[in-house]
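lol ok so funny story. i was supposed to be doing the assay writeup but got distracted and ended up predicting the structure for this chain instead. priorities right. anyway since i did it might as well share w the group, maybe its usefull for someone
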Amino acid sequence: MPRAVAGPEIERLIQLLARVPGLGPRSARRAALQLIKKREQLMSPLAGAMQDVLGKIATCRVCGNLDVRDPCSVCTDETRDPTLLIVVADVADLWALERAGALNARYHVLGGTLSPLDGIGPDELNLTTLMARVQGGEVSEVLLALGATVDAQTTAHYVTELLRESGVKVTRLAQGVPVGGELDYLDEGTLSAAIRARTSL
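and the output, tada:
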């Protein structure tokens, strides 16, 4: 068992950082070291920001986004197109689409995808609120921005069936060849999806 190289407080900081997705034990040690070395420029402001946001985080009752206000900044933005509703599995997906800046629409966060093996059924997802929003009459298109996994595709099919009687147009993200992708390096599933989703020029 490796010996500790720092006090228990620093070791605890490293252990907590290692729990952050994308950071393993080595990355957590490097991050902790940078924070410690630059404690006035990084650690102190970061600790203050985390403490400040801790008590203010709220889940938006309209769409399920995380923000410091409820309804969230996206739902209260009057410049967004209220007729287009983008359905995503998680808040991370919402934030990723916002970074892309391709659409100025409203969102709905399901809070996951259907996964019978993990015990996640329709009751665990934010579907009741989705149906209420669609039935409100303002939405004319629901864009299913779900991943290409089996669980995501099952969820997309389930949501499509739920919305079948609503009269709204249901669309999904195109899947296939990524920008800058070389065909030789793509897997068969991606190539098959790209061929099925081919478009006219």
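The chain has a mean pLDDT of 91. The chain is about 40% helix and 10% strand.
back to the writeup now i swear
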